[in-house]
Description:
It is a single chain. The protein has helices spanning 9-21, 31-40, 43-47, 63-68, 84-93, 105-120, 151-162, 170-178, 189-205; strands spanning 2-5, 26-29, 51-54, 75-79, 97-100, 125-128, 131-134, 140-142, 145-147, 210-213, 217-220. With 223 residues, it is of the alpha/beta class. It folds into two domains: 2-120, 3-Layer(aba) Sandwich (Rossmann fold), CATH 3.40.50; 125-220, Arc Repressor Mutant, subunit A (Orthogonal Bundle). Strands 2-1-3-4-5 form a five-stranded parallel β-sheet, sandwiched between helices. Helix 7 (151-162) crosses helix 9. InterPro entries: CheY-like_superfamily, OmpR/PhoB-type_DNA-bd, Sig_transdc_resp-reg_C-effctor, Sig_transdc_resp-reg_receiver, WalR-like, WH-like_DNA-bd_sf. Residues 123-222 form the OmpR/PhoB-type domain.
Amino acid sequence: MIVVVDNRELVTSGYQSLFAREGVSTATFAADEFRDWVETAPEADLSAVEAFLLGDFDDRSVCPRLIRSRSTAPMIALSESRNLDGTLDLFAAGVDDVVAKPVHVKEILARVGAIRRRENAEATKTVVGEICVYQDGRDAEVAGKAMALPRRERRILEYLVSNRGRRVSKQQLFNAIYGIFDENVEENVIESHISKLRKKLKMRLGYDPVSSKRYLGYGIGVD
């Protein structure tokens, strides 16, 4: 079942008819009705949802969080204007995809299938002690909980974990974060990023998992 949300009955009834031609059932809601339904619907009803199709309506950006509190089904937002800021805002709100209208329902179904395949694929990850780093863009998990980090601190953690069991030099870390051709940043700036990262890890774990030795460099999972 595809849930279609839009305040315009012409839109919801149109998609209902088009999906029916593809043999796909739908449930249609106006925005206010949808919010009430998501909050009160039985688990059995929500488990039947294959995807949520969000039309253009006020406060659409609050829906992804509400949906995620009850369902893991893909969320696709329909865009009636090609507006970069609007698209980025929708992704930031938590939708899985943004599709510009007009769009054929077959393409919508194909996108739903692609999202589900990505979600079901086993994510590549590296685990060192209580630290788990993913290679699919997700935040690292530390002590069983996601830890959101600034981009450079995150990249440092990923690099250290990928080189678990051995030390890497400050120069190696700098090259991994800034690139080997960046001459506009002082190499010592990496020490500041590492210091901030280590403090955050220590606060979460109760100890500092990053070992450092002068002249030898930094490491995770080293003696």
